[in-house]
Amino acid sequence: MKNVMRKGDLTSTIHLDTIKNKKGLYGLGPKEALKGELLIIDGKSYVSTMGTQGNIEMKETFDVKAPFFVFTNNDNWDVYDVPNTIKNGTDLENYLIQLKGSYSLPFVFKLKGVFNQVDFHIQNLPDGTIVKSPNDAHTGQGKFQINKCEGEIVGFFSTSHQSIFTHHDSYIHMHYINDDRTEMGHIDHLLLDGFHEVKLYLPK
């Protein structure tokens, strides 16, 4: 992530179709040249990009590249009700920090249910943009706010990969996708307050 956001290296480092084991595969990252968002959820790969009218365009394909990407395989989950104390993304991160002692390595997690509010973006960097900072890298983003939405969130947690696959000020990196598979993007802000229909999935 640092190479992309601070050094302006937008070239692809992985072709998703080269990931051989797609059973229980999960992964996320931006599309090459910062022209969209990528999400692999349970072995299916989705690409979201911005249309010419400011609309979201979705495609299911592994034939896509990324400048950085995090992925793992998992098909064995423990399922929990989200505690009432978790109201937002910061609360979720703190909760996962408390749980991290159960895991020796970074881990993937999922949330499924109805979310009070999800703010997400889709990278849409204009051609020719010189990237020297995160602000530059965020130029042209499509920004969306969805309320009372049904869907899934895939996230990766790590306390040792800031600026690698999480931002420098966070231990989590999350992408949202709706149940209809017509909207997907990188989560900027998440509100769970008032809804208790959300399940948290953690690797066994």
UniProtKB/TrEMBL annotation:
Keyword terms, alphabetized: Acetoin biosynthesis, Decarboxylase, Lyase
Domain of life: Bacteria
Catalyzed reactions per annotation: (2S)-2-acetolactate + H(+) = (R)-acetoin + CO2
A GO biological process held by the record: acetoin biosynthetic process
GO function terms (MF aspect): acetolactate decarboxylase activity
UniProt pathway: Polyol metabolism; (R,R)-butane-2,3-diol biosynthesis; (R,R)-butane-2,3-diol from pyruvate: step 2/3
UniProt key word Cytoplasm: no
InterPro entries: Acetolactate_a_deCO2ase
The protein's Enzyme Commission number: 4.1.1.5
Annotated Gene3D superfamilies: Hypothetical protein, similar to alpha- acetolactate decarboxylase, domain 2
Record has Glycoprotein as a keyword: no
Family of the protein in this entry: Belongs to the alpha-acetolactate decarboxylase family.
PANTHER family, A to Z: ALPHA-ACETOLACTATE DECARBOXYLASE
Protein's UniProt name: Alpha-acetolactate decarboxylase
Originating species: Paenimyroides viscosum
